């Protein structure tokens, strides 16, 4: 059982001992720290104005419990709460500025299994907090320096369950989204909503774009029917159903709907990495410019960007790092290779709805199948692996050893260690959200990517065993 405190929030498994897991006490403590941070000036402090925070949650089983704890903690601090109820991460992100709120909290552990939950913290722009801001909140939580309001100054709750519909409207109003063109193509799409909020909002969006929807695991009951991380090994059911239904393609999202994966019409994975590649190809064809992804993402985005005469740059892993570099380089689209689309024309956050709508519009303009579209892009193959960490493993020592071993290659230590070989690369880093070392490799063939990953894993284990 685990509790992970990071600059982006707090994440842990439900139950167990205080401080070791995400218990009710820990949820209250970190909600208190966030509210205290806002009251101290982290929000838009104006004389006589109460602070306001937007709250939304995914459908996981512990959601209502954590939701009640967090909402009532903020009320106790004298902060008003806009309660979206069942929602998505990008929906909360767009709601914060629309509500002129001081911040937002999304209650979701994203792609983690059902025993996990988390508080993901937003600023007044509806964007994730900076590293410095997150560090301040962790300090406040550690010191338990909270000052709650008296009975006449308690916050209030305003329930607003319309924001998933508002979110859909915002997406459909984007200039590069053409719902009429999509409707004319009469697409048939299978949706795996992993029994969370994506099972509600994605089919609704598709139906408003004139798409026939086949639902798979779209009941928002929090009982995930498979591991909720949208990887090939977890998606056998939808791959089979796409072929059985003779659908044009399949859509898979994670529980909080900020990661998007497609299944091609032949039942094969389109590839999480190629979600961003395909959407960027469409956006760049209409509005040329620069792109950004993190350094664990495919080289294919660089190739597509350069095809459209733009400039590509790579950031450290983490949405806040991608957004920071996107702003610095005026990137018109960016994201992460895990299926996260960030389109500033909408907002600076990973958004599966934006990705779905742009992908459908792109596909509607082409006379190809999804499998043919995938084959048209530069062919790279990734292997994503991990090594479970125990307290006695010194991750920094491992990274130093691997850096020394490959000192003759092109190396970046901005975020862990990335080693660029002539035709392939490997990126090693400690996860911000799980007690693991992530090992990502990419090569021109799957066999080469897998072989590189196995070699690196063996080398890391050899370092650990010394």
TrEMBL record:
<dbReference type="InterPro" id="IPR016055">
    <property type="entry name" value="A-D-PHexomutase_a/b/a-I/II/III"/>
</dbReference>
<dbReference type="InterPro" id="IPR024086">
    <property type="entry name" value="GlmM_arc-type"/>
</dbReference>
<dbReference type="InterPro" id="IPR036900">
    <property type="entry name" value="A-D-PHexomutase_C_sf"/>
</dbReference>
<dbReference type="InterPro" id="IPR005844">
    <property type="entry name" value="A-D-PHexomutase_a/b/a-I"/>
</dbReference>
<keyword id="KW-0460">Magnesium</keyword>
<dbReference type="InterPro" id="IPR016066">
    <property type="entry name" value="A-D-PHexomutase_CS"/>
</dbReference>
<dbReference type="InterPro" id="IPR005843">
    <property type="entry name" value="A-D-PHexomutase_C"/>
</dbReference>
<dbReference type="GO" id="GO:0008966">
    <property type="term" value="F:phosphoglucosamine mutase activity"/>
</dbReference>
<protein>
    <submittedName>
        <fullName>Phosphoglucosamine mutase</fullName>
        <ecNumber>5.4.2.10</ecNumber>
    </submittedName>
</protein>
<feature type="domain" description="Alpha-D-phosphohexomutase alpha/beta/alpha">
    <location>
        <begin position="274"/>
        <end position="380"/>
    </location>
</feature>
<dbReference type="GO" id="GO:0005829">
    <property type="term" value="C:cytosol"/>
</dbReference>
<dbReference type="InterPro" id="IPR050060">
    <property type="entry name" value="Phosphoglucosamine_mutase"/>
</dbReference>
<dbReference type="GO" id="GO:0000287">
    <property type="term" value="F:magnesium ion binding"/>
</dbReference>
<feature type="domain" description="Alpha-D-phosphohexomutase alpha/beta/alpha">
    <location>
        <begin position="8"/>
        <end position="146"/>
    </location>
</feature>
<dbReference type="Pfam" id="PF02878">
    <property type="entry name" value="PGM_PMM_I"/>
</dbReference>
<dbReference type="GO" id="GO:0009252">
    <property type="term" value="P:peptidoglycan biosynthetic process"/>
</dbReference>
<dbReference type="Pfam" id="PF00408">
    <property type="entry name" value="PGM_PMM_IV"/>
</dbReference>
<dbReference type="Pfam" id="PF02880">
    <property type="entry name" value="PGM_PMM_III"/>
</dbReference>
<keyword id="KW-0479">Metal-binding</keyword>
<dbReference type="InterPro" id="IPR005841">
    <property type="entry name" value="Alpha-D-phosphohexomutase_SF"/>
</dbReference>
<feature type="domain" description="Alpha-D-phosphohexomutase alpha/beta/alpha">
    <location>
        <begin position="168"/>
        <end position="267"/>
    </location>
</feature>
<dbReference type="GO" id="GO:0005975">
    <property type="term" value="P:carbohydrate metabolic process"/>
</dbReference>
<dbReference type="Pfam" id="PF02879">
    <property type="entry name" value="PGM_PMM_II"/>
</dbReference>
<comment type="similarity">
    <text>Belongs to the phosphohexose mutase family.</text>
</comment>
<dbReference type="InterPro" id="IPR005845">
    <property type="entry name" value="A-D-PHexomutase_a/b/a-II"/>
</dbReference>
<feature type="domain" description="Alpha-D-phosphohexomutase C-terminal">
    <location>
        <begin position="404"/>
        <end position="458"/>
    </location>
</feature>
<keyword id="KW-0597">Phosphoprotein</keyword>
<dbReference type="GO" id="GO:0006048">
    <property type="term" value="P:UDP-N-acetylglucosamine biosynthetic process"/>
</dbReference>
<dbReference type="InterPro" id="IPR005846">
    <property type="entry name" value="A-D-PHexomutase_a/b/a-III"/>
</dbReference>
<keyword id="KW-0413">Isomerase</keyword>
<dbReference type="GO" id="GO:0004615">
    <property type="term" value="F:phosphomannomutase activity"/>
</dbReference>
